[in-house]
Amino acid sequence: HFLAALAARHDGNPEVAFIDVGSFGVWGEGHTFSSTRIKYPAETVIRHIDLYRKHFKHTLLAANDDFVMTENGELAIAHALQSGLTLRDDSILVQKRPNSYFHAEMAQDFWPRWPVILESEHYGPSRDRGAWEDGTLYLRAMLEYHASYVSIHWWPHEFLQENRTLVDRMNRYLGYRLVPTEVRLPQTATVGKPLTWSVTFENRGVAPCYCGGFPALTLKDAQGGIVAVLVNMQANVRDLKVRDVAIKGPKAEGDPEADLGPPIPTTWETASCLPFQLRPGRYRVFLSVGTMTGTPQIAMPLDGDDGQRRYFLAEVEITSDAERSEGK
What is the mean predicted confidence (pLDDT) over 199-214? Predict the structure, then answer.
């Protein structure tokens, strides 16, 4: 009854990113080693998973990696994977290396389909007992799990003050990071003729852009009014390849960024028709990624943002067939 009421309020709510299957184990983390130490069968966890699935039809559900600690726990993890749940690993860096985290390999089956979630140990105790070190192991875990969410356990201002550099490094790779490296378009185009353009993207993050999106060019006139939106509907940033990450685990020393493979570029080319009523003149061209109808949705690390997640590229001269025939 509780799950039914919870789902009635939150299932499909765009303000809710995911729901933990959090009704089993200490802190809802799927283990009992801090309480009874009873080794429940995997079937018990599967019943909990299925109760959530019964009521949550739209919002992403998350299974805890510690479900594997139950009897035949690999069956519970397999059921979660087959049922469309993602993976959550709590309390990274509770212990010192080499036990800082355990299930990066397990995450490899989940991250290509759904965003993986990580949570750190309480920062203060982890720091004080030497498990945190300089935080680089949390960055390594994030990379190896191909995580899209990471959270912290501590007072935010204190954590940020002591880990500003770490936060900046993690933000460069967490989830997806779409970077257009090249856009090609003509300096002039003619109404009634296709405008051929291409864009090359790299995903410099460590996870897919699960929501997807379509590259678009927006033409604006001198007053800033939108006069044309050209969308490449055959290009979806969800399909960008994710860079490789070598899984070395918390025993590894050195810079985890050195174990990242290079970003993999993808180039899409298309020919777009200009609106027949477009007047000749010079227009400013902006790049965006969003819906099939050209509404921008995804921010990119570029200059020239118009405030609506469109990024200025260049100007293009639009001519008419009549001007061409007169040699203008």
Answer: 98
Q: Residues 135-172: pLDDT tens digits?
A: 999 999 999 999 999 998 899 999 999 999 999 999 99
Q: Which of 73, 67, 126 is nearest to 100 (CA)?
A: 126
Residue 230 CA, chain-centre distance (Å), reads 25
Rounded to an integer, what distance in angstroms lies between the CA atom of residue 235 and that of residue 17?
25
Q: Tens digits of per-residue pLDDT, 218-235?
A: 999 999 999 999 999 999
pLDDT tens for each residue of 252-263: 999 999 999 999
> Residue holding tokens 């918390």?
250
User: DSSP string of 132-198?
Assistant: STTSHHHHHHHHHHTEEEEEEES-HHHHHHHHHHHHHHHHTTSS--EEEEEEE--SEEETTS-EEEE
Is residue 94 scored above 90 in pLDDT? yes
Structure tokens of 110?
A: 């989940």
What CA–CA distance (Å, rounded) separates 78 from 85? 10
Question: String of b and e for 188-201 (b: at least 16 CB within 10 Å)?
Answer: ebbbeeebebebeb
**pLDDT of 171:** 96
In the predicted model, what is the mean pLDDT of the chain? 95
Q: Give 120-125's long-range contacts (Cβ < 8 A, gap of 24+).
A: 120/91, 120/92, 120/93, 120/150, 120/151, 120/152, 120/153, 121/91, 121/92, 121/93, 121/94, 121/153, 122/153, 122/154, 123/152, 123/153, 123/154, 123/158, 123/159, 123/163, 124/154
Q: Tell me the pLDDT tens digit for each residue of 72-81.
A: 999 999 999 9
Residue written as token pair 């061409």: 324
> 290, 291, 292, 283: which is closest to 312 by C-alpha?
283
Backbone φ and ψ of 239, nearest 5°: -90, 0
Which one-letter amino acid corresponds to residue 243? R
* Helices and strands of the chain, counted as H and E runs: 8, 13
